[in-house]
Amino acid sequence: MLADPRWSRTSLGKGSGGGVIRRNGAGGGILVVDDDPDFRALVVSTLAQAGFEPLEASTGTDALECATRERPSLVVLDVRLPDLSGYEVCRELRDRLGASVPVMFVSGERIESFDRVAGLLVGGDDYLAKPLELDELVARARRLVERPRGSKQASPLTGRERQVLALLADGLTPAEVAADLTISPSTVGTHIEHIYEKLGARTRAHAVGIGFRSGLLER
After folding, report:
1. In the CATH scheme, what is the homologous superfamily, with its name and number, of domain 5-146?
2. Which residues pair with 74 in a beta bridge?
3. Residue (of 177, 196, 199, 206) closest to 113 by Cα position
4. Tens digit of pLDDT for each residue in 67-80?
5. Phi and psi at residue 55, in whole multiples of 5°?
6. Those residues with Cβ within 8 angstroms of residue 160's Cβ, 6 or more apart along the chain or in another chain
7. Which of 63, 88, 145, 146 has the fewest CB atoms within 10 Å around its CB?
8. Strand, helix or coil at 71?
9. ∠ at Cα 204 (200, 206), nearest 5°?
10. Alpha-carbon distance 45 to 49, whole Å?
């Protein structure tokens, strides 16, 4: 393990930390945004041991100031913050920096499927529930940091794939999509596989979120 394994399954309570941003490396680092100083220190230590250069912020306002001053390679963002919500921070990051900076939400309270969908729809790239597995956090962070941004545009969906994605966004099951488009369920399954591959998605909700953010789907 990259850190004491006892911490990887411990739910840490909210701390009182101030809004000071502490630099822990050079530019392009991973910005960790959480108002719990113990959890924040754990994540920063874990990322540093994995070879990343972490930065810290304890409020949404400080996170936006830090990210605007020096563009991070990834933002690890708690959903619940003392000033702005993580969702608000993510939307503002997208307005300021576009889709070039990946955002990984973390939360110990908003962990239901609809919470994850909401996070993806506002622009998040990943969503982890606390308590975290530290090795998983590092693996997902590395994938997001190393993934070429804008790769979605390099592999556009076909017309049929966009139809399938739109119906999935409407809440139809694969069987219902097949009936609506008058194609076989196996063909729908193939289209879904291609959609996931081209969009870099792992789940239906993730694919739909990417579809909305990239303009493939209309809100």
Report:
1. Response regulator (3.40.50.2300)
2. 30
3. 206
4. 988 899 999 999 99
5. -125, 165
6. 181, 191
7. 146
8. coil
9. 50
10. 6
The CATH number of the domain covering residues in 151-214: 1.10.10.10
Domain residue spans in the chain? Answer: 5-146, 151-214
Residue 173 CA to residue 38 CA, distance in Å, equals 42
Q: Which two tokens stand for residue 63?
A: 């996170």
| Nearest alpha-carbon partner for 37 in 56, 53, 9, 52 | 56
Strand 103-107, strand 54-57: pairing: unpaired
- To the question of pTM greater than 0.70 for the whole model, the response is no
Look-up of token digits 């990943």: 126
Q: What is the pLDDT of residues 68-125, one digit of tens each?
A: 888 999 999 999 999 999 999 998 998 888 777 899 999 877 667 677 778 888 888 8
What type of residue is 79?
Answer: V
Amino acid at 159: G
Residue 33's DSSP bridge partners are 57, 77
